[in-house]
Request: fold
Amino acid sequence: MSKQKVLSVQNLVVRYDKDPVIQHISFEVEEATMTGILGPNGAGKSTLIKAVMEILAKDSGWIRFWDLPLQKVRKRLSYVPQRESVDWDFPTSVFDVVMMGRYPHLGLFGRASRADKLIVEECLERVGLSELSKRQISELSGGQQQRVFLARALAQQADLYLLDEPFAGVDMSSEAAIIKILKEMQAAGKTLMVVHHDLSTVSEYFDKVLLLNRKKIAYGNTDTTFTQENIQTTYGTHIRL
Amino acid sequence: MNTFWIIFAGSLVAIISAILGSFMMLRRQAMIIDAISHAVLPGIFAAYWFSSSFQSWQMWLGASLTGLFSTFLIAFLQQKLRLQSDAAIGISFTLLFSIGVILISAFSADIDLDTDCVLYGELAYVPLDISDFTFWGIEVPRIIWTLLALLIAVLLLIVVFYKQFKITTFDPEFASAIGISNNFWHYVLMAAVSLTTVTAFEAVGAILVVAFMIVPSAAAFLLTRRLSSLLLLAACIGVLSVQAGYWAAWLTDGAVAAAMASASGLFLLIAFIFRRR
Reply:
């Protein structure tokens, strides 16, 4: 019996001006998988997940989550932007950023309840930042900032997670902590898609890979899809593993 | 009593400006305030032309709409013509401002309105224009009531929708992902800035509004690590600037609005010396 389909993307096209960044991409993601989205710079990796989340408008194509449109399942989705996309000098604390993960559950006028605060504290605990809860976010290292974003995603209590370069610019101990949590999430039945750069860790981290260079090169199990030939097609040069 | 009303009016403008200005600064859109403050000129003229008064709601609405229009124009130039934001702002407000200047100079014989009074305002006139509504028998200048109403509206807006303003300012992509519209809250904020500029211009002038929106917020930014305390502190610095500026102007017999703007600059310098960042 095949697993439940979490995300279906059919014939997705995204353009910046007239330049097609994503060209006719189709794929389907099954429940409780962790997919590495790989490709060279400018391949459209971030664009793909932003288009899936409707942060960027798509040109054409069809996207469904559990056979439903985005608007019906928003609370089941979590998006983790690139760390550099926000200003870390913003006057706010670690706790407050993680609390933003509860916003979708609060509604238009709602305020954070005790239960929300408990969830935030739990999530901080999980990423190992409990002690830094009151810190201003500019006082954190790159790895800690990335873990704040991960804690915020955890606080959303979603089912499908889309993460844009969660390992970019983080130290080795943070990377180890982050992948450990991602694997735990997968084991708990969550579905994850992760934009990733470092080819040397792909086999270790992901059970699925999506190779991308404006078009879809390949999508499938890491052991059969992450091959020398496919990598060469994706990156256009000889890359030794 | 006159002194009290002048300082009170200035303080109200300073508080409203500090709250809105803090968000504009954090959104890196401080220059849009400058644009709006100039772009309201043709709206002020048009409304004045039709109603022959500064006090009508037509004037208020007309000017606010041109202010808001300038922000649409800025967004249009950025998105459709792919201009840098500073270029888009520069084009929008000089265009609208110059249209306003042309209109006023062409018809200045017919109406009592000049560009100086729009840009610099005249705080000293605040106590002269008394409202029909009294407070326990005390005569209250008209602008005070207007500013109080605006302050309550702005406070309500920010308190009720605090999380929406915070998240669209800090992390617009995440906001969009969880279904909070960046565009919607952007234009709500722009409308509030536009209304504030228009309401405040006749008292303190368009330039002082810009100073009150940006300088206290920038000073508070150097001193705090929380958004809520930044808003509070910016408001306090704004009020202090009003006080200090008023008495400096009184001592030197100088221009009140300019002294207040300079005072806020002095507070920025002090904040820089004691900065926590």
